[in-house]
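**Reference record**
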Amino acid sequence: MRTSAKFAILLAATALASAALAGTYRWVDKDGVTVYSQTPPPPGVEATTVKAPPAPPKNSGEDSLDSLKQQYQSFQDREDIRKERMIEQQEDQELQQKREHNCQAAKHNLAILQGPARSLIQTPDGEYQRIDEETRSQQIEEANKMIDQYCD
C-alpha cells in the first residue's frame, strides 16, 4: 500500500510537471514546411515556443449587458440626431418653396400694378374693385417690399 501511494503521488507530480511544461512548438522541417506541435521537435531541429494568446477578459453577464445597453443607447442617440436633421432639412426645403412662391406672387402683382393703368383689381373673394392712383402706388410699394423680403 505504501508503494502504491508513492506511485500515485509520483504519477500526479509527473502529470502536473508535464502539463506545466507543455507548450506549442514551431519549427520548419527538412521539406520547408512549418510545423506546429505540442511535442518537442526531433533532436537537432531549432524550434521556438509559441505563447498562447491571452485569455479573454472575464466579464460578468451584467457587464456585457451594460455594455450592450450603452452601445444601443448610443445608436439610438445617433438615430434621433439623424431624424432631427432630416426634419430640419424638410422644413428648410418647405420654407424655401414658400419663399419662392411668395417671391413669384409679389413679382406677378407688381407686374400687374405697373402694367397699363387699370382702375379695377380683383379682391380675394373674387369681386372686382376700383382703386385710385394713391392706393395703386401703395400696393406697388408693398409689392416691392415683398420682393425685397422673399426674393434673394
User: Anything to note?
Assistant: Confidence is low (pLDDT under 50) at residues 15-21.
